[in-house]
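Sharing a chain and its predicted structure for anyone who wants a worked example. Both blocks are below, sequence first, tokens second.
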Amino acid sequence: FATLVLAMGRVRVIEKLMGFGAKIVFPVMAVINALFIYLYADGTSRIHEFLLDLDKALSARIREAAQLYSIYDATLFGQSVDLGGEVPYDSYYRITTLICDGLFSYLFVCFGFASTIILTVMIYYTAKKGSKRDWIMIFIYTMYAIIESHGLNAYLAFPILLYQCNFFKSFNKIDKEKKDTINVREREMLSDG
């Protein structure tokens, strides 16, 4: 019996950790991603060798994003970026085509910080109001966002629909509560009159 009680207590702790982690994983990974790209472009950090190995494991996604940031700056509301366009060969980046495979870099440069904040709020809200299934989808979506820029495409990255559904479901719930309140008042007025 004591083992069962301890196991139930651990499940609650794990649930709380998962819920908390789902709320912060997307913005934390966005910051880590931007930091790694900055340190890679700098080339003098203490962890540069680690970043070179990580970049190799991620099929040059850090290098591609660092080159994108060297040409275009991150903006508040985004900008038009010539992805797929040719760039002069550089011995450091070793790339001739401008590519952006990570969603975080794509959001910061092409869509801007404002869009990134809106998406982060929607993910936070989904984690706050969602279930364990929603939390797992948030973790998977965030890991997908590290390696692919298709995270905003609802056909390829369906968790974006999850955020939208939970976000607008709350507004429908508020409208229903208001209608129920109005209906109760109308019934009271009819019974008094």
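Comments welcome. The helical segments are 2-42, 48-57, 61-71, 103-129, 132-147, 159-192.
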